[in-house]
Design goal:
It comes from Rhodococcus wratislaviensis NBRC 100605. This is Transposase. With 65 residues, this protein is an all-alpha fold. It has one domain. 68% of the residues lie in helices and 0% in strands. The termini are far apart.
């Protein structure tokens, strides 16, 4: 399961919002793998909230990101 989340985070680097989060973590002096793990955790939190609230994913508005 963890590898799937890691690979999902790696693939998500093409998304501008995910890339901005990754870049923010890199600016905090985290190494590449650590920043990807942070992004994977964030994506896992979003997935959990979607399941808990029984909602579909909605792309955040630029002002919320």
């Amino acid at each position: 399961m963890g590898r799937a989340l890691f690979l999902s985070a790696f693939a998500a680097l093409h998304d501008p919002i995910s890339r901005a989060y990754y870049d923010k973590k890199r600016d905090e002096k985290k190494k590449h793998n650590a920043a990807l793990i942070c992004l994977a955790r964030r994506r896992c939190d979003v997935l959990y909230a979607m399941l808990k609230n029984k909602e579909l994913y909605r792309n955040p508005t630029p002002s919320a990101a």
